[in-house]
Description:
Layout: E1 2-3, H1 14-25, H2 40-57, E2 64-69, H3 72-81, E3 87-90, H4 95-106, E4 111-114, E5 159-163, H5 175-184, E6 188-192, E7 208-212, E8 223-228, H6 252-267, H7 269-286, E9 291-292, E10 303-307, H8 313-319, E11 323-324, H9 340-344, H10 349-353, E12 355-359, H11 366-381
Parallel strand pairs: 1-11, 3-4, 3-5, 5-6, 6-7
Antiparallel strand pairs: 2-8, 7-8, 9-10, 10-12
Helix pairs in contact: 1-6, 2-6, 3-4, 7-11
Amino acid sequence: MTYLDYQATTPLAPEVLEAMLPWLRGDGGWGHANPHSPHRDGRRAKAAVEVARDQVAALLPPGGRVVFTSGATEALNWAIKGGSGPIVTLATEHAAVLDTAGAEGARGRAVTIGAVDRDGLAASVTPAIGHAATAPAMPPSPSPRVGAGRDEPGMTGGLWTAMLVNNEIGVIQPVADLAAAAHAAGALFLCDSVQGYGRVPIPENVDMVAISAHKIYGPKGIGALWIRDGVALDALLHGGDQEGGRSGTLSPALCAGFGVAAMLMAARADEDAAHVERLWRLAIGRLAGWTINGAVDQRYRGNLNVRRRGLDVGRLMSDCRDVAFSAGSACASGSGRPSHVLRAIGLSDAEARSSIRLGWGRYTTEAELSQALDRLVAAADAQ
């Protein structure tokens, strides 16, 4: 099997597994300890959690804190539900953002869904905080609220949110510009950096960042929300308040794995980027005649979303069972609906249904990618 679905999840790095094993095995009698307990073994577990927190924070902006969560979905839900005021986001966001915004809209918060252009980029970098449930495009920004500032407690301007790297088409949004526009309107800015963390620099003017370990060769079941100093959120989960606003017992094993995964992303950044670029060039050469969905230049090179006229993607998947790839987003697979991201960039239902997403990364070899692409092209030609 050739795995080309890195946007859905990444393989666990061997170094990450090694870091987790002592905590899973209970080595020395301390591996099972609760990091929130005051005894010696608990303090040892707590120290491991704090080392991991520092490792994760090293790839995030300064001036904030990392709060561990069960994953990016929880982090995004907390960031959105923990505030008040209008919500502005984009039509190409992940369901964890769009569905949460929709739920908040049902509770009475104003929600504006901004449009993107054919490349998948925000149609305007100055969206308004509007009162419509949806909007065909991002309208002009209102005048800044007098006295509003990014770190002002109790901001009434609401929340704007956008993905740094789109999970379906790999497009890199102008997050710095969007965050600046949000601040000018007195709003906070949340960056979904699940696909971009460790790969694309995160602008320092954002106020919150959601990330996930299993997208950076770490374990599933843990993510984090970075919160800028001075930003306060209502609790999403209530209980022991172990994380200062987030309740629940942390797993030292998951935290340790997340920390090592983040450390490796930093240490291997140049090597990983060069490898991904080589694979990108190989893939677009082998898929000549296919159409790339979304921007080509302003894009993370480990994501290739392409379409071919008349392609039966279901049949292609059946014919190429030894290649793991996605028809759009894994988060919506099996729904039978065309990708909302591909529809948002102007593709017809037929074009969206004839699209596939290929993703590669650190452990993809050029030889296996070449063989997999040859299999896909041959199967498509035979339809």
